[in-house]
Amino acid sequence: MIIKPKVRGFVCVTAHPEGCAAHVQEWIDYVKAQPSIQGGPKKVLVIGSSTGYGLASRLSLAFGARAATLGVFFERPSEEGRPATPGWYNTIAFTKAARADGLYARNIMGDAFSDEIKAQTIDAIKADLGQVDLVVYSLASPRRTHPKTGAVHKSCLKPLGAPYTNKTVDTDKGIVSSITIEPADEAEVADTVAVMGGEDWELWIDALRAAGVLAPGAQSLAYSYIGPEVTWPIYQNGTIGMAKNDLSRAAKAIDAKLSPSGGRAFISVNKALVTQASSAIPVVPLYISILYKVMKAAGLHEGCIEQMHRLFATQVYNGHTPTFDEAGRVRIDDLEMRPEIQAAVAALWPTITTENLESETDIAGYRTEFLKLFGFGLNGVNYDAETEPHIPLI
Ligand SMILES: NC(=O)c1ccc[n+]([C@@H]2O[C@H](COP(=O)([O-])OP(=O)(O)OC[C@H]3O[C@@H](n4cnc5c(N)ncnc54)[C@H](O)[C@@H]3O)[C@@H](O)[C@H]2O)c1
Questions:
Q1: How many domains does the chain divide into?
Q2: What ipTM does this complex have?
């Protein structure tokens, strides 16, 4: 099958297996070029391990600290005439490379919100690892079937209280327009908290503890975002922000459970980056396009792999302990939030139009990164050649 990108709105419905493998290899090469992480975890469970920050976490710790990794994710396999989703191919590429390097890597494909996948994961830990010393929780999902009630909760990205109007960009067509988003009702807030809040993270930790598969001193972390005021109505003060507040609540509750044995749980606030999850948020892709322009010009740009490697190498391991902000979070978004970076973004924001989008923002870099998520635009891959889309998971 010859596979080309097919972009529909904020998703690409195709993915290229060799391109995804080349993308994973770029990340491995980055990690291998850094000094190794000392005192890192030996056995790591990553929930949401196939793309974005979760994949970058898994890969940093495998190749940077030689950790054994167990990954949990939910991806769609290939079908007749249709490639699999990128995380499927990423996971195969990661696993092959890790095993070739003598590293343990095992994968569990299925709904992490379910009791069944939690049980399968615990069985895998018992069989192969005994216990894990780090649990990374990096799920981003549009829906969750609640394991106890069976209710299906759908998350939404809406402001609270009043409609929110701002600029947004159609990243595919390059059109800057004004968007008004109506506020969420109470049920939508509750649903978004049910999907993206902390309850499932707590259920995971409770299940792992009850099964005795958390090592003494085990740590757990989850990821959040704050960003600039221009995005607050839709992010920090919107439905997703309420879910992230609940994630912070869960971090404290989990921390209280892990700290008696010398462990800890905390949230890392990460930089805004192009991922499948962030491309779906109104306004944010325009912000990212401007931010990339400003951060690249300042020599401060980082992608997922640089962010996660820096998190583990400078905040968690290598003899470091985390530096927490006033709310107890690690701020690996520190470079994004520097006053001079935010001032430059804020100055550009009102001036951006469809006409100057290409010259004044890094929309080109946004598009390149977006296509890379699906394995397109990687050096050394022949996109005109036949490629095998049906690859079994390993
Ligand atoms: N992208 C950003 O700009 C950004 C910034 C800061 C924080 N974050 C946070 O980082 C975390 C990860 O987001 P991302 O951007 O890397 O997202 P992503 O879409 O790249 O990755 C999501 C992962 O979750 C997995 N997943 C989704 N539903 C699942 C399910 N039901 N069962 C099992 N696995 C499932 C996917 O397979 C994938 O591995 C989120 O908490 C997000 O809010 C993202």
A1: 1
A2: 0.99
